[in-house]
Give the backbone structure.
Amino acid sequence: MPRAYASYGSAASGTSKTAVNLFTTTAARPWIYEFNISFSGTPADVATILSMRRSTAVGTEGSGYTPVALDSADPAAVADAGVAHSVEPTYTASVDLWRQSLNQRATFRWVASPGRELIIPATANAGIGMQSISSGATPTMECHFQHGE
Amino acid sequence: MSDLKHTRLKPAGWTQLCDPDLGVVETDTVQCVHCGGHRSFGPGTSKTLRWCARCNGFICEKQGCLDCVPLEKWLDCVERGVDPKTVTTVRGGWSGK
């Protein structure tokens, strides 16, 4: 039976800023079946373009976030989450798995139908990240992934 | 109860936007059979997306998705270290109009 995990990351939005990047190893082919994005800070009318993108290198993480098993009896996830990047992950150009422009006051949630998840190949450091492409200001993005493996 | 206004018989996903002006807006999504990306589905969507006759599914508007490399084949190539472009056998997309 697949195991489910939750990851979280936040970052100031702007040009090419990653909130969270889920990456894997050759041992597992994880799939993201849900993500949420919202903004913290004083509400304002700020437009931010967000994208879920495939990455091939993890960049430099300021810190990591160990995915939390939704069932506490499950073992640790094979995939790992990178947050607070000082060097952005390397994203594949022009491959947006999801792209959305959001007002800072809005909250967005996506859930995949079973079998239609965003799949990460079982390749070292391959991943999918939530990145702000551009933003009218720098509100803090709060992003949450749920994945299975 | 869902307030979806336009639905698909077999949606690939579902989105929920909570906006202070618009309220809660829900949409279904379709998935590109080549890159695996999702797009919101609504009236007119099928005119902007393309269709792959080999995979029998929507493909998105990106140039890289016009060549028919099914998602599973793409994953297999990446995991084996093979350039997915080298397995392209046919130009798969055309306008969905």
Remarks:
- Chain B touches chain A through 25 residues (CB under 8 Å).
- The helical segments of chain B are 45-48, 71-80.
- The first strand of chain B starts at residue 13 and ends at 19.
- The radius of gyration of chain B is 16 Å.
